[in-house]
UniProtKB/TrEMBL annotation:
<dbReference type="GO" id="GO:0007268">
    <property type="term" value="P:chemical synaptic transmission"/>
</dbReference>
<dbReference type="GO" id="GO:0042310">
    <property type="term" value="P:vasoconstriction"/>
</dbReference>
<keyword id="KW-0449">Lipoprotein</keyword>
<dbReference type="GO" id="GO:0045202">
    <property type="term" value="C:synapse"/>
</dbReference>
<dbReference type="GO" id="GO:0006939">
    <property type="term" value="P:smooth muscle contraction"/>
</dbReference>
<dbReference type="GO" id="GO:0043410">
    <property type="term" value="P:positive regulation of MAPK cascade"/>
</dbReference>
<dbReference type="GO" id="GO:0071880">
    <property type="term" value="P:adenylate cyclase-activating adrenergic receptor signaling pathway"/>
</dbReference>
<dbReference type="InterPro" id="IPR017452">
    <property type="entry name" value="GPCR_Rhodpsn_7TM"/>
</dbReference>
<keyword id="KW-0325">Glycoprotein</keyword>
<keyword id="KW-0807">Transducer</keyword>
<keyword id="KW-0297">G-protein coupled receptor</keyword>
<comment type="function">
    <text>G-protein coupled receptor for 5-hydroxytryptamine (serotonin), a biogenic hormone that functions as a neurotransmitter, a hormone and a mitogen. Ligand binding causes a conformation change that triggers signaling via guanine nucleotide-binding proteins (G proteins) and modulates the activity of downstream effectors. HTR7 is coupled to G(s) G alpha proteins and mediates activation of adenylate cyclase activity.</text>
</comment>
<protein>
    <recommendedName>
        <fullName>5-hydroxytryptamine receptor 7</fullName>
    </recommendedName>
</protein>
<dbReference type="InterPro" id="IPR002231">
    <property type="entry name" value="5HT_rcpt"/>
</dbReference>
<feature type="transmembrane region" description="Helical">
    <location>
        <begin position="348"/>
        <end position="366"/>
    </location>
</feature>
<keyword id="KW-1003">Cell membrane</keyword>
<keyword id="KW-0472">Membrane</keyword>
Amino acid sequence: VFLRGSPVARCTNMHITNKGFSRSNLSQPTAKPLLPTAMWNESCGEQLQDFTRPEKIVIGVMLAIITAVTVMGNTLVVIAVCVVKKLRQPSNYLLVSLAVADLSVAIVVMPFVIVTDLTGGKWLFGEVFCNIFIGMDVMCCTASIMTLCVISVDRYLGITRPLTYPARQNGQLMAKMILGVWLVSASITLPPFCGWAKNVHTAGVCLISQDFGYTIYSTAVAFYIPMLVMLVMYYKIFRAARKSGAKHRFTDLSRRERLETVANEALRMQGLKPPGVAEECAALSRLLTRERRNISIFKREQKAATTLGVIVGVFAVCWLPFFILSTARPFICGVECSCVPIWLERTLLWLGYANSLMNPFIYAFFNRDLRSTYRDLLRCRYRNINRRLSAVGVHEALKV
């Protein structure tokens, strides 16, 4: 239960025990609460968690593992694209930007969040660094989300307009898109430094600005608009894949009928060698070539739809609860403090951070080249890595 009102009214003459609040304890300095389970932040009225040592060890180890795996996975993406020639394509520059954003979250944000969580939610690094920390957190997380949005648009245009969409072959254009992502992220980070909205940084509290206008602007640009774009792109790719699937089935039926016709004609006129047989064979060859191309497009669209569906699903599960909470908090709690239970706020925050952990593994799951590169890098097999990847590609092509 969180008390509303002035900080003095919330915190004066209150002491928490396992039995509740007691004013009489003020006259008994020697009285000690039995098994305290929470503390109060005297300036903001937030209920802080009071963990036992075993609980701190378990929580610290779990959060440290999440951070370490996030660093490892995103570092592998950056190294893979930089080292492997086959992956060094403009279309993969977005993956590097995404990995850099997620890696920044793990390196410059998560360690401070871990320390804050282990102290029950109390900020220990001062008011000046509070603004810097919030800026880094907002910018890196927003860059990660915005990059996912741009990747969905890139996948859609690459599938539906393979001949007219130039970004996949133009590294400069892709670099401009990445720069735009980081500039948009900066547009959300800078307002608290420019006087529009002030972050909450009283003693023991470090909270992003709860200004109503800034909250709506930041959550819309950082999450709701990218989420809407990703859903639209997924729907368009899914619809294109369904149309391609229907067309593929129709073409496949026509091809079978054509094969049967040509085969019967060839058998009927076997030994006569009329001139029409050669034309029929040439037509059959063209038909098979076109069919292979249709199958290739169909498989690519199906893969893109599946990949983007998983990305959108994981992204929504990880970030949607946190942003709903962030949007509603100032309207429920006011602009001065947070009345949300610390455990709920921190759980949803780490659920969002988990998206940075999952991104590199999602792409590796759907990309054979990334998987092979990951295995080679983890086994320290750096020599001839490009040759082995090329050999795998040739082998797969021969199997098809």
